[in-house]
Amino acid sequence: MQMIRHCIDQCWDVLQTVSDPEIPVLSVVDLGMIRGVEINDQQEIIVRLTPTYSGCPATDMLKAQIVEAFTAEALTPVKVMVDLSEAWTTDWMSEAGKKKLQVYGIAPPEGLAHQCGTHVHLTNGVECPRCKSRHTRLLTEFSSTACKALYKCQDCLEPFDYFKCI
């Protein structure tokens, strides 16, 4: 049992190295896309992956990157199962991931998805990831992806993305 626990811990360490293709400073673990790791009766490693949305075009690429990362560490056989039993939510993002987003220049989601719904509910502005001002304004509800809104800071005058609560 201890050996299986050690193997699963190794798997989580490897998953920390698999980056999101849109935001490379975040791992699939930071984003909360990994719903579980287990070893089945056939001694296969099963990784349950929930993409950020069901039609995500990067899903196959993420599956391949996970298999490649596990193979490089001799953690085989590995199977990545897409798990759509629950829709992904920003509530699953790690606090470390939210901090990485901010350092990267993207304002992280504020609050819990079931409380704030979308960024529109935020009445006291979104914190600018550069200067930390809340004196910001919405430029457009959709930015480079549907999960982000584009804001502009009224103090430092820099535009920035806000990762909406989903």
From TrEMBL:
Span of domain MIP18 family-like: 10-71
Highest taxon in the source lineage: Bacteria
InterPro entries on file: Fe-S_Maturation_MIP18, FSCA_dom_sf, MIP18-like, PaaD-like, Zn_ribbon_PaaD
Domain PaaD zinc beta ribbon: 121-164
Protein name: Phenylacetate-CoA oxygenase, PaaJ subunit
Organism: Acinetobacter baumannii 6014059
